[in-house]
Recover the amino acids of this structure.
């Protein structure tokens, strides 16, 4: 029990410090590396809680795919940091307004929690014993029954984000040759096949 407590405090402290350094680091590569460190410590906390499946998913998907992809993208981008810092004051009012709105939402959430503490007993689902149901089965039962609409909404948000990223990064080149599916489908033997007679020793 003492070792588990010590491990919890170590993982929690490193995760909090790494999370702060993610937003405090000036170099984006360092921010991504601190993000990976925060993910590793969060996975350690999941292991201490007995949620090995969530820990493995966090390592495989977020560390092995998402964070590494972020790192590759940040390293490949040629970002002029001096130019980014020049427009900081221009976006400061909008950023302050968004931060104020988020702060008000957090205050409302914590205020509701303080005034109605019995909501935890209503929202929380009882954890079944491990000999009756595995972690994967328990997570699936809760996710696809009680929170299925939120799961679908999260999928729609990710779909919209993916489409937005494609639209923002799409560049139209006027001289590029592109496929026209309608012309390919409407092709016939006469338009798609041409026989040309080539004289010996000469090219087309």
């Amino acid at each position: 029990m003492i070792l588990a407590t010590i491990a919890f405090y170590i993982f929690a402290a490193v995760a909090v410090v790494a999370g702060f350094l993610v937003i405090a680091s000036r170099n984006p590569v360092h921010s991504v590396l601190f993000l990976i460190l925060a993910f590793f410590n969060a996975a350690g906390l999941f292991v201490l809680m007995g949620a090995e499946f969530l820990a493995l998913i966090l390592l495989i998907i977020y560390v092995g795919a998402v964070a590494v992809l972020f790192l590759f993208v940040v390293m490949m981008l040629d970002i002029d940091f001096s130019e980014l810092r020049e427009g900081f004051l221009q976006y400061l009012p909008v950023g302050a307004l968004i931060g104020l709105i988020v702060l008000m939402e957090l205050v409302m959430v914590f205020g509701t929690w303080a005034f109605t503490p019995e909501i935890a007993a209503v929202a929380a689902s009882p954890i079944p014993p491990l000999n009756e149901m595995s972690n994967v089965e328990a997570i699936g039962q809760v996710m696809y029954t009680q929170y299925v609409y939120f799961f679908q909404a999260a999928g729609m948000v990710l779909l919209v984000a993916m489409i937005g990223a494609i639209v923002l990064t799409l560049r139209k080149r006027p001289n590029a040759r592109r496929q026209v599916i309608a012309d390919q489908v409407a092709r016939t033997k006469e338009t798609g096949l041409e026989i040309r007679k080539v004289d010996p020793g000469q090219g087309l």
The domain at 1-79 is CATH 1.20.120.1200 (Four Helix Bundle (Hemerythrin (Met), subunit A)).
